[in-house]
Amino acid sequence: MTVFIDIGALEDIPRQGARVIRTAQGCVAVFRTMDDRVFALDDRCPHKGGPLSEGIVHGDRVTCPLHNWVFDMNSGTAQGADEGAVRTWPVRVEQGRILISAELVSRPRAA
Ligand code: FES
């Protein structure tokens, strides 16, 4: 069973914006879409490490700020290619609070 931890209010992230949280697994970007869905992805583009949290959110996709790869935030896959994927994490919103998988916070990074 996945245990979730409260990381803050949904309102703290602007629509089409992101917030970076530091976790045991590295930096994770938590995105808020225009229609208030949230997604959590590693904040590191699999291409050359661009900060996805600084990318442009459009629908349920985010465009990397460095070389414009477009990622589907549901799956983390790069659009139109099997060139790469970014890891996604369980996240949800309950009563205006953002909850992420406790696994992210507690489990040490795999070597
Ligand atoms: S680093 Fe993200 S597209 Fe190049």
Automatic annotation (TrEMBL):
Cited Pfam families: Rieske_2
Keyword set, alphabetical order: 2Fe-2S, Iron, Iron-sulfur, Metal-binding, Nitrate assimilation, Oxidoreductase
PANTHER family given for it? 3-PHENYLPROPIONATE_CINNAMIC ACID DIOXYGENASE FERREDOXIN SUBUNIT, FERREDOXIN-RELATED
Q: Which residues form the Rieske domain?
A: 5-100
| EC number, UniProt record | 1.7.1.4
What highest taxon heads this organism's lineage?
Bacteria
Claim: Metal-binding is one of the keywords in the record: yes
User: Which CDD domains does its entry note?
Assistant: Rieske_NirD_small_Bacillus
Per the UniProt entry, what species is this protein from, by scientific name?
Answer: Paracoccus denitrificans (strain Pd 1222)
What one GO molecular function would you report for this record?
A: nitrite reductase [NAD(P)H] activity
Recorded protein name is Assimilatory nitrite reductase (NAD(P)H) small subunit
Q: Name one GO biological process term.
A: nitrate assimilation
